[in-house]
Amino acid sequence: MPEKYHIKTQAVPPRRPRIGKFGVVDWREDCARCHNCVKKDCVYDRYRQEMQYIRDLNDANVLFFDCMGCFSCVQNCTKGLLSLSINPAYERMGNSYWTPDIILITWAQAETAAIPVSGAGYRGKFSGPGFDAMWTDMSEIVRPTRDGIHGREYISTAVDIGRKPPQLRFDGIKSSTILPQLIDLPMPLIIDMMPKSYRLPKLLPIFNAVAARTGLIAIVDSRDWELLGDEREKYLPHLAFYLDPNASIPPKDILQKTLLVEISESDAVEQKIKMLKEIHPQIVVAIRVPLDSKGEERAIELAHNPAVEVIHVVADLNGNQIGVENPKFIKDMTLNIQKSLVKSGIRDEITIMAGGGIALAEHMAKQIICGADAVTVNLPMLIALECQLCKCCQPGMLCPARIDEISSGYAVGRMTNLISAWHNQLLEMMGAMGIRDARRLRGETGRALFFEDVEEETFGKLFGSRKRN
Question: What is d(CA 283, CA 304) in angstroms, rounded to the nearest whole number?
């Protein structure tokens, strides 16, 4: 049995004052000064030795929004003097998709590498758009051997990137099938290029260092080679060049030290793959396909081409179809591609990577259930550095997170912690679903419920169907 994949982490505290979600308003005028004040029973110890707690804070305002939302003091105060409030600074973060909750959860994981826990629990809608319209089946969680990161069973998160042969042929006892090159990733995650509006040259060498530290791969634009720092050649096994149609191929001695290269979708895909294979026969070539109005059809078409090994389908930052008035979400588009390739009998031959809208560890698992072999992420890595997605990444504008002032150790530590937390959450989900190998998770829709299907089955005959075909 192979050694368990483990990422070494250590706590990396934030550089900036914390922005909490909850705050407790304390109306002390009518306080009865109870000997057994409910604040002393706070399960997170926010009020014990209150004056010393205040002295240890770098920013006094943090005190008012460092509440974990357990409601213990609010519910048990005999005079009803305590009430929970929402931090206005918290509400201004992110956007409708990258919500303040997602940003806060990402910050916590980047700091501690721990799986996030909310004292107040989930008090939102039962279902929502995108990944919130999908639930995973956790029925196996009752078995003690399925206890995720603490269980006695070995759970593998490794995946293979590359093309697999449809069958093996043997000449006597020897295999006559030429096995193609495969990349073994310890978890189904690849760090993608940052979108142009959030691209900071200072972060490029940091992404490579994080990929090397976690055993993963980072995709970088080949034009940014000179910006990758003095130690860039050391990270080549964990680096994948993206070649746009006008980009020149990297030097032979550089390309031969990499495992993966990505090219843009075009009519000359076969010729470019052939050219790259002549330089480095063992390299795996991925095709980047934007999920626009023709993205699904183009991905399915490329999958039928024997020369294509990996297809990287990419939606917009919010996981939506690109340039369409009523866009589909990435999980639905990936599911359509998966079903088409299964129907054609070639799904096991091709590798599908999917990116766009992957904001949480649960999104990674759900996207794999919908048919992806691996996911690509970018914005979560930036949020790990205390970014608020405030759209201030323009020349001459002041970044509230002061990302231009970060140290390499801080950035690498925070991103590594985030990846480790995602890995542990994937283990927890797989253990609860009774799946011991991430390769088995791909396309396992029997381990998930989709709101559209449940609604259709329950109310479709009464009110008519509203499912999108």
Answer: 20
Burial class (CB in 10 A: 0-12, 13-18, 19+), 150: exposed
Longest Cα–Cα distance of the chain, Å, equals: 90
Convert the pLDDT of each residue in 188-206 to its tens digit: 999 999 988 888 888 999 9
The superfamily in CATH containing domain 159-457 is Aldolase class I (3.20.20.70)
Angle ∠(270,274,279) on CA atoms, nearest 5: 150
pLDDT digits (tens, 9 = 90+) for 115-137: 877 655 555 667 788 999 999 88
